[in-house]
C-alpha cells in the first residue's frame, strides 16, 4: 500500500463523462489498496472563460479579485469529482486550498506555495477516504485566496505529494507523456520514456506547457518521483500497465550520456523584445533599466548589451507578452528621461525556440547545426542564449513552427 497523488488537467476533467472516468480510475487505484489524493484542474476552458469575463468588466482587473474569480473553477471540479466517487460507492471529500491549508505568499496570480498542512488530509486518508484538493490555489497570510499562475495545478499536485511524502505523483493529461516536442506542432514527435529532471526543468522553463516549471522544481527539490501519463485511456486498464506508462522524470544524471545529443525542442510563442536605444554606457546602467522592470515584478529573460559607440550603447531584452505593455509603461515613465535614453522600441511578435539535451555536454557542434538549419530555412536569428544543456534563439513569430519542425528533423528526433 502506498500514498499516491493523482493530478488531472482540464481536458481530463472536461465533461461529466470525463469526470466519471476519472472517478473510475481513482477508484481502481484505491481498490488496489493505495491511499489516494487527487488534485484536479478546472474543467477545460473554464479558467479562460472566467478570466475573459473579468476582461469584459475592466481592462486592468485587480489581481486579488482575479484570484477570487479564477479559483472558483477548481472549486467546482473538486466537488463534482467527489460526487462522482461517492456515486460509485467510494468515500470521498473535497477541499479548497484554504481549507487544507495550502499557504502561499501574496503575489496574486503568480503566488508561490510556502507550506502545506497535512493533518486533515492524513486523518481522512486513514479513515479510508479519497481526498480531493483544488489545484492552482492557496491562501496568503492575510486570508486572501491566491492562485499559482497558469498551469499551476501541476505545482499544487507535486507540492501536495512532497508534503505528504507520497510514493509517487502521477500527472494525468491529454497526451500520453512528454514528447520530443509538442505533438500538436510536430505530428511525428516521439514520446520519451524518461526525461532527466534537468532537461524537464529546461523544457518547462522554455515553454513546454506539459508541466508548469514550478512543479518540476518541487519534484527536484523533494526528489519526488513524477510521471506524466494519459487520462484518456480506458480507466479500467490493468493498473500494473498504467503504473509504468507515460514518461518518468528521472533523477539519474548519467543514464542518457550515450544517447541522442538533443532530447527535445521547446518553444514559447509569447515573447516580446524591448530595446532601449542610446543609453550612456556607464556603470549601473543595466541595473537602472532592468532593476525598474524587476521592481514591477516582470521577469526578464534574454539580455543583450550592444557595443558602445561614442559612449552610448543599446540594451535589448525580452519579457513575456502578457507583461509587455506594463514593461513599456515602466520604462517610458520611470527610466527613459531619468537615464537619458534616446528612444525605446519594442517588437511584440517574436518567439523563442530552444533545443535541450544533457547530451550537449559531451558533444560539440550543436549550436552550429542549429544555426545552419535555421539559415537553410531563411530564418533570421535576433538573439541567442545558451546554458550547458540548451541553446535558445529568438526569431520572428511567423517562423516559429517552421523552425521547430526543421530542427526536430535536423536532430533526428522523429519517431522511427
Ligand atoms: P493539462 O490540462 O492536463 O494540464 P496542458 O494543456 O497544460 O494539459 O498540457 C498538455 C499539453 O502540453 C499537450 O496537449 C501538448 O499539446 C502540450 N505540450 C507541449 N509540449 C509538449 C511536450 N514536449 N510533450 C508533450 N506535450 C507537450
Ligand atoms: N485551471 C488553471 C489554468 O487553466 C490551472 C491548471 O489547469 O493547471 O491555468
Ligand atoms: Mg497544464
Question: Please, could you describe this protein's structure?
Answer:
Belongs to the aspartokinase family. Its EC number is 2.7.2.4. Pfam families: AA_kinase, ACT_9. By secondary structure, the chain is an alpha/beta fold. It has 2 domains: 3-253, Carbamate kinase, CATH 3.40.1160.10; 264-410, VC0802-like (2-Layer Sandwich), CATH 3.30.2130.10. Helices cover 36% and strands 25% of the residues. It is built from 13 helices and 18 strands. The protein has helices at residues 16-31, 46-57, 63-87, 97-100, 119-126, 153-163, 197-205, 213-221, 239-243, 285-295, 324-339, 366-376, 400-410; strands at residues 3-8, 35-40, 92-95, 102-104, 113-116, 130-133, 137-139, 145-147, 168-173, 194-196, 226-230, 247-250, 264-280, 303-305, 312-320, 343-356, 383-387, 390-396. Strands 3-6-2-1-9-11-12-10 form an 8-stranded mixed beta sheet, with helices on both faces. Strand 14 and strand 15 form a beta hairpin. Helix 2 runs antiparallel to helix 3 and helix 12 crosses helix 13 (400-410). The radius of gyration is 23 Å and the shape is globular. The two termini are 38 Å apart. The mean pLDDT is 95. Aspartic acid (ASP) is lined by residues 9-10, 41-42, 47, 73, 135-136, 150-154.
Number of helices: 13
Strand content: 25-35%
Q: Low-confidence parts, pLDDT < 50 over ≥5 residues?
A: none
Q: Helicity, in percent?
A: 25-40%
What's the CATH architecture of the largest domain? 3-Layer(aba) Sandwich
Give the number of DSSP strands. 18
CATH topology of the largest domain: Carbamate kinase
User: Biggest sheet, strands in spatial order?
Assistant: 3-6-2-1-9-11-12-10
Per CATH, the superfamily of the largest domain is Acetylglutamate kinase-like
Name of the CATH class of the largest domain = Alpha Beta
What ligands can be seen in this structure? adenosine-5'-diphosphate, aspartic acid, magnesium ion
For the CA atoms, what is the radius of gyration?
23 Å
| Mean pLDDT, all residues | 95
**How many structurally independent domains?**
2
Q: Structural class of the helix and strand makeup?
A: alpha/beta
Quick one: biggest sheet? Answer: 8 strands, mixed
| Straight-line N-to-C gap | 38 Å
- Overall, the morphology is globular
The protein's oligomeric status is single chain
Amino acid at each position: 500500500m502506498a500514498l499516491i497523488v493523482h493530478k488531472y488537467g482540464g481536458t481530463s476533467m472536461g465533461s461529466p463523462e470525463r469526470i466519471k472516468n476519472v472517478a473510475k480510475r481513482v477508484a481502481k487505484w484505491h481498490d488496489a489498496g493505495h491511499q489516494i489524493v487527487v488534485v484536479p484542474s478546472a474543467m477545460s476552458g473554464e479558467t479562460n472563460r472566467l478570466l475573459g469575463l473579468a476582461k469584459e468588466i475592466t481592462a486592468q482587473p485587480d489581481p486579488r479579485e482575479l484570484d477570487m474569480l479564477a479559483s472558483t473553477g477548481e472549486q467546482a471540479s473538486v466537488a463534482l469529482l467527489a460526487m462522482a466517487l461517492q456515486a460509485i460507492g467510494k468515500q470521498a471529500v473535497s477541499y479548497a486550498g484554504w481549507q487544507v491549508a495550502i499557504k502561499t505568499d501574496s503575489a496574486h496570480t503568480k503566488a508561490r506555495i510556502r507550506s502545506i498542512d497535512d493533518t486533515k488530509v492524513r486523518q481522512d486518508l486513514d479513515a479510508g477516504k479519497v481526498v480531493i484538493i483544488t489545484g492552482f490555489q492557496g491562501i496568503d497570510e492575510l486570508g486572501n485566496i491566491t492562485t499559482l499562475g497558469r498551469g499551476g495545478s501541476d505545482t499544487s499536485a507535486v507540492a501536495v505529494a512532497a508534503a505528504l511524502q507520497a510514493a509517487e505523483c502521477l500527472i494525468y493529461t491529454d497526451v500520453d507523456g512528454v514528447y520530443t516536442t509538442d505533438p500538436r506542432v510536430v505530428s511525428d514527435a516521439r514520446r520519451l520514456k524518461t526525461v532527466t529532471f534537468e532537461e524537464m526543468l529546461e523544457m518547462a522553463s522554455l515553454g513546454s506547457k506539459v508541466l508548469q516549471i514550478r512543479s518540476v522544481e518541487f519534484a527536484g527539490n523533494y526528489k519526488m518521483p513524477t510521471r506524466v501519463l494519459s487520462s484518456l485511456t480506458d480507466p479500467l486498464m490493468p493498473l500494473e500497465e498504467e503504473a509504468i506508462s507515460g514518461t518518468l522524470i528521472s533523477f539519474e544524471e548519467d543514464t542518457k550520456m550515450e544517447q541522442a545529443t538533443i532530447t527535445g525542442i521547446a518553444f514559447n510563442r509569447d515573447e516580446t523584445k524591448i530595446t532601449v536605444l542610446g543609453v550612456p554606457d556607464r556603470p549601473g546602467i543595466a541595473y537602472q533599466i532592468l532593476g525598474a522592470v524587476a521592481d514591477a515584478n516582470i521577469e526578464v529573460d534574454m539580455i543583450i548589451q550592444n557595443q558602445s559607440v561614442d559612449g552610448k550603447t543599446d540594451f535589448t531584452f525580452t519579457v513575456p507578452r502578457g507583461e509587455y505593455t506594463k514593461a513599456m509603461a515602466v520604462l517610458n515613465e520611470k527610466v527613459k528621461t531619468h537615464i537619458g535614453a534616446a528612444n525605446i522600441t519594442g517588437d511584440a511578435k517574436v518567439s523563442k525556440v530552444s533545443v535541450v539535451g544533457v547530451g550537449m555536454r559531451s558533444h560539440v557542434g550543436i549550436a552550429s547545426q542549429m544555426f545552419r538549419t535555421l539559415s537553410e530555412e531563411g530564418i533570421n536569428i535576433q538573439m541567442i542564449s545558451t546554458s550547458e544543456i540548451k541553446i535558445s534563439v529568438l526569431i520572428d513569430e511567423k517562423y516559429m513552427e517552421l523552425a521547430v519542425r526543421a530542427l526536430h528533423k535536423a536532430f533526428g528526433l522523429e519517431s522511427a
